[in-house]
Design goal:
With 443 residues, the protein is α/β, with parallel strands linked by helices. It contains 14 helices and 13 strands. The chain has helices spanning 4-15, 53-65, 76-91, 108-117, 139-147, 170-179, 215-218, 236-248, 256-270, 273-293, 316-325, 348-358, 382-387, 425-433, and strands at residues 69-73, 99-103, 120-124, 155-159, 184-187, 210-213, 226-230, 297-298, 305-309, 332-333, 337-341, 390-394, 438-442.
């Protein structure tokens, strides 16, 4: 597969011409990557008005993912989340204020979009959960909520996979959405690779209308590289307005280093990636078996995650530090879980070091405590709360105050309280459990 962006950048660097243009390093090496770091010079195309090499590369990505349109972001899924919601809200034809039905474990970018676009939110809470990182939503639950609305929402928004690797029944959720006159938007930040499994499981394969992938999380792409995907059966305006939606929330100086890495990733995906991915999935399955034999409990996750439940006498932070001293860094750790993310770029030696560093677990496992996420009463909109004057206070004094900033244990997680909601005693208890000492509230 052709790599027009990467080829252009490389050829320009090799010419060693005189650069009387941005950036200010002029191609001189400070970190070492500067010769390939350019701006929108002649022939380089422009991300948000692409009709040259960037447009060609995006068409290649569209074919690889089998979508109605795939567009590049150099500012991560955060930019794409805002763009998805802009497209959904802009196309809504209901009466009154637009609203979105959303699973509660939404990334902070979703709340920032609500503040900027000023839409209301109907939250979907799990009936119970073992972790604020998980928000299991069933098709039956979504059907019931949509049937109870006076008019269809601008979109239904869910996160799958979640931070622990849990996945939703995206195909069934999409059917429910379409049956009830709305669209499904999926934050698939952790699942860019899912299309390339032996049985494709990407949200675009399962019927979602809008989707974002953080390419850099699971593919060999520089940090910030992401995709905005448009479904083949999505409203035509989504594809036509995608660039306008992205530029509204993006810098006018996108990184060409990141664009070149997204471009090179096209060739990587086209050249035997599915086979490499299958081998990695099998390797992780073998690691899981070994760890279970060594006394560890593993969670059911998406194929490229390894999530361990922590035993009674183990703490995630201390375990992460112990692993770090052995040269092994995890993705995430809390009081209950530790998460590792793998890709085909991890080799057998990496897995051997992980197994060795974890060692044998001799501590017993206790029954996991289930928690019900707090459902605090709303007092004002997310936008009103964000733009109102705030003050920071200690958690113990927050009962009865209106939340001014998102309170989550990690993104994407179930926010303990959302801006505009009144903090109650139950919320304070969970905040203290997750070591939140202070909160921002409205003055």
């Amino acid at each position: 597969m052709q790599t027009p962006v990467a080829d252009f950048v490389k050829e320009y660097a090799e010419k060693k011409g005189v650069r009387f243009h941005m950036p200010g390093h002029k191609g001189k090496e400070f970190l070492g990557c500067e010769p390939f770091d350019i701006t929108e010079i002649a022939g380089a195309d422009a991300l948000y008005e692409a009709d040259g090499i960037i447009a060609e590369s995006e068409r290649n990505a569209t074919r690889l993912f089998g979508t109605g349109g795939t567009f590049f972001s150099t500012e991560g899924s955060s930019q794409c989340i805002r763009a998805m919601l802009f497209l959904a809200v802009r196309s809504w034809r209901g009466e009154g204020r637009p609203y979105v039905v959303a699973a509660r474990n939404a990334h902070k970018a979703f709340l920032y979009a609500a503040a900027l676009l000023d839409f209301d939110i109907v939250w979907l809470f799990p009936e119970e959960t073992h972790s604020l990182c998980s928000c299991r939503i069933s098709p039956e639950q979504l059907e019931e909520v949509l049937k109870g609305q006076k008019q269809p929402p601008a979109a239904v928004y869910v996160t799958s996979p979640d931070y622990l690797g849990g996945r939703l029944a995206v195909g069934e959720l999409a059917e429910v959405c379409h049956r009830n006159g709305t669209i499904l938007a999926v934050d698939n930040a952790h699942g860019a690779y899912l299309h390339f499994l032996e049985q494709p499981q990407h949200p675009m394969d399962l019927g979602a209308d809008l989707c974002c992938d953080s390419a850099h999380k699971t593919l060999p792409v520089l940090t910030g590289g992401a995709y905005l995907h448009i479904g083949k059966l999505a409203p035509e305006t989504f594809g036509a307005d995608a660039k306008q939606a992205l530029v509204l929330f993006g810098s006018t100086s996108p990184s060409y280093l990141t664009l070149a890495s997204l471009d090179l990733c096209n060739a990587y995906l086209a050249d035997g990636y599915a086979g490499k991915l299958a081998e990695t999935v099998q390797q992780l399955e073998r690691v899981c078996r070994t760890l279970r034999e060594n006394g560890w409990e593993t969670e059911e996750t998406d194929p490229l995650k390894l999530t361990l439940l922590l035993p009674e006498k183990e703490n995630g932070s201390s375990l992460a530090r112990r692993l770090g001293s052995a040269g092994v860094e995890c993705e995430y750790a809390d009081a209950q879980y530790i998460v590792f993310m793998a890709t085909p770029e991890n080799d057998s030696a990496d897995y051997g070091r992980l197994v060795q560093a974890l060692g044998v677990n001799h501590s017993p496992y206790l029954q996991r405590e289930k928690m019900r996420p707090v459902q605090c009463a709303g007092r004002c909109t997310v936008r009103e709360a964000f733009f109102a004057p705030h003050e920071k206070i200690v958690v113990e004094r927050a009962v009865g105050r209106i939340c001014g900033a998102p309170l989550v244990s990690c993104p994407p997680a179930i926010p303990v309280v959302v801006p505009g909601e009144v903090i109650d005693r139950n919320a304070v208890a969970i905040l203290k459990y997750y070591n939140n000492d202070t909160v921002e509230v409205l003055k």
